[in-house]
Amino acid sequence: MIKEVFKPVSFEEAVKLKSDDVYYLSGGTQINWTPVTQQRLKEGKPEIEKVILLKDLLSAEIGKEGSAISIGAGVTLQEIIDSDKMPDALKKAAKYIASRNIRNMATIGGNIAANRADSYVIPCLIALKADVETVDEGIMCVEKYAREEKISLIKRIILPPLDGVCVVDAVYKSSGSYPSVTTAVMVSKKEVVIVVGCVSKHVVRLKKLEQSVLNGSLSGSDLAVAVEAEVNPIGDLLGSAKYKKYLAGTMVAHSIDLSFKEQSRKGA
User: Fold this and answer.
1) Could you give the CA distance from residue 4 to residue 222 in angstroms, rounded to a whole number?
2) For the residues 179-197, what does the mean pLDDT come to?
């Protein structure tokens, strides 16, 4: 239960207020799902009691910065969907959250900071080669932020122009459940990016496979098998480890096939 609330007037003050027992709060839809808070609950430590309100600090603007798109960390997922500046893949990723009420509350910055393994948005942002600008550590790629489990306060997200095709996918056990596996791939003439969620404690990029996919030496069923070998999910109510491996492999192989076909069509 939240017992104490801080309302800083600047990013610098927000950072000074932050500690192991004081948490950032923006939309408030995922605060209890961060890896840190989940570990605290496992250790029997108290739930979150102190929060720092960020709503008045975070920008909710979407704009252009040269050829890139700048997205304020306070932009909601519904605003991502409604914006004509957003790539279709990112809109689709945000739409996987079925509740419009949640989409109207949840911010893109908070979604990244929560770093959930089953995030729909993080895989897509990694595939799109997005960066985050943080108050504490400057600019870094979303992949690094997730992989290193950063807790730095996010100010904005920077999307470079998409020079290729990005495809996102998700599979559920039921219409009301969390996803069993999420994937995102990006294919261009120069690069392939493969990202999988729900198979580790955070979203993972399968860099070892990307060059082989790009040069055509790994595709189809062989790619599916290779993906299965690279991921190590934990079985739960949403599916066994073996099932999640199978899903990850088939979803990536299918998305890569779709991406190459679309890339070929665009180049024709």
Assistant:
1) 54
2) 97
Distance CA 268, CA 159 (A): 26
pLDDT value, residue 137 = 94
Q: Determine the structural domain holding residue 207 and report its residue range.
A: 165-267
Q: Are residues 119 and 209 in the same domain?
A: no
Predicted model pTM: 0.91
Output the pLDDT for position 46. Answer: 57
Strands of the sheet containing 50-53, edge to edge, are 4-6, 50-53, 22-25
State the pLDDT confidence band at 192, using cuts at 50, 70 and 90. Answer: very high
Domain match, 197 and 227 both: yes
Bridge-based pairing of strands 50-53 and 22-25 is: parallel
User: Both tokens of residue 187?
Assistant: 């294919």
| 54/111 Cα distance (integer angstroms) | 14
pLDDT at 27: 79
Q: What is the pLDDT of residue 40?
A: 54
Contacts of 51 (CB under 8 A, 6+ apart): 2, 4, 5, 6, 22, 23, 24, 25, 31
Residues 153 and 169 grouped into a single domain: no
Provide the domain count of the chain: 3
Task: Specify whether 134 is located in the same domain as 91.
Answer: yes
Beta strands in 54-128 (DSSP E): 62-65, 68-72
In degrees rounded to 5, what are phi and psi of residue 99? -80, 120
**76: DSSP letter:** B
pLDDT: which is higher, 40 or 70: 70
Q: Which of 182, 32, 181 is nearest to 110 (CA)?
A: 32
Count of residues in the chain? 268
